[in-house]
Amino acid sequence: MSRNYEKEEDILAHEGDDYERFLGAVVPPIFQNTLFVLPTAGNGIPEHPYVYSRVTNPTVEVVEKKLAALEHGEDALCFSSGMAAISSAIMHFVEKDCHVITVRSIYGPTRTLLKDYLPRKFGVETTLLCQEEAMHLEDYVRDNTRLIYLESPSSGVFSLQDLEYVGKLGRERGIGTVIDNTCATSLYQKPLDYGIDISVHTASKYLGGHSDIIAGALISSGQICEEIRRSERANFGACMDPHQAWLMLRGMRTLKLRLEQHAKNALAVARYLQGQPLVKRVYYPGLREGEQKELIEKQMKGFGGLLSFVMDGTAERAELFMDSLTCFLKGCSWGGFESLVYPFSVGTDEEFNRENDCPANLIRLHVGLENVETLIADLEQAFAKVTDGR
Ligand SMILES: *Cc1c(COP(=O)(O)O)cnc(C)c1O
């Protein structure tokens, strides 16, 4: 795939533009068609590479060009959801009775796929590692290990894995490596630069950015993308709809601006939380502190609006705090314009916390694009409600 721009702002604004092909339209049109009429001697249609929109579509291709350029991949593929991209990347590497290594802190449905579904259906064995174990991941490699699946940072306590180390290990041992790069985004972490084979994303979060599309993507080498395009994507059929691609394109044009504001607001909220007596610990990579500081500064160029904290006291107290918020809406997703609160491990049992490699009473906040003083005032009044009820 050819690339026309180097700088991220230019890629977001213009990569994939083709004024000649799209009749000067400043925004690429939505090719809302299933099939493309093939050229024949009689119909006068010029040569073109398109056959059927499940396999290739010009609007979807514009998004794919942008993503490949942003993450230094040779190519990219879009999907109907993040889980479609994730499951296609996983299916590309696994085979019957093979062994997979992953981390405990991965996204829930991905864990279910690796830990329950693939073992039950295809005899796959999955080893789940906590953060410390993942730092010497080679100890867990077996002869039949076919895939190392990472999520760095994870979206609970933002554990990082060492991408250079894992990329090198995968290359040396011939093991496929996949990372869910959603949390860091295509702007702030470039896993392919460290030798990771596939970077996967849900675009339902920051890439879309407006809480109005479910979408996914992966970025990889030309060869891997071509294989997945012809095999997992075409055969399982989880292709991206052209209209969804167009909305994603619109979201991506402001990705950098949005993320900068999310990070500014989130850092202010994180610092505020650190000064609160009811807060035991704040997790936000943008604070650049803690035992993973060095890795954060090596791998990540920036941060978004997602952070979490451990609330002192009972689950009831944490519930009261969350229910007292008015600007932070209660909801499970993140990456949109709106601020959200989510009970990540409030009232969960020890088994859940061990399985997710997270502490108890963890509240996750997505800091949106609202005025930051409004957001902090909202947290302040919720803390006051909890203190009064003590
Ligand atoms: C939301 C999420 C997903 C799933 O994405 P969908 O588009 O909802 O399928 C995958 N990984 C992470 C880290 C997520 O937060």
Poorly predicted segments: none
H/E series: HHEHEHEHEHEHEEHHHEHEHEEHEH
Overall strand count: 12
Overall 3D shape: globular
User: Which radius of gyration do the C-alpha atoms yield?
Assistant: 22 Å
Largest sheet: 7 strands, mixed
Helix content: 25-40%
Each distinct ligand: pyridoxal-5'-phosphate
Task: Kindly name the structural category.
Answer: alpha/beta
Strand content: 5-15%
Quickly list its features.
390 residues; seven-stranded mixed beta sheet; binds pyridoxal-5'-phosphate; alpha/beta; five-stranded mixed beta sheet
How would you briefly describe this protein structure?
The protein is α/β, with parallel strands linked by helices. The protein has helices spanning 8-14, 58-70, 82-93, 108-122, 131-134, 163-173, 185-188, 222-236, 242-252, 255-274, 293-299, 315-324, 350-356, 372-388; strands at 75-79, 99-103, 125-129, 145-151, 176-180, 198-202, 216-220, 279-283, 306-311, 329-330, 340-342, 362-366.
Structure characterization notes:
The protein is α/β, with parallel strands linked by helices. Helices cover 39% and strands 15% of the residues. It has 14 helices and twelve strands. It has helices spanning 8-14, 58-70, 82-93, 108-122, 131-134, 163-173, 185-188, 222-236, 242-252, 255-274, 293-299, 315-324, 350-356, 372-388; strands at residues 75-79, 99-103, 125-129, 145-151, 176-180, 198-202, 216-220, 279-283, 306-311, 329-330, 340-342, 362-366. The strands form two sheets. It has a seven-stranded mixed beta sheet, sandwiched between helices. Helix 3 (82-93) crosses helix 8 and helix 12 packs across helix 14. The mean pLDDT is 96.
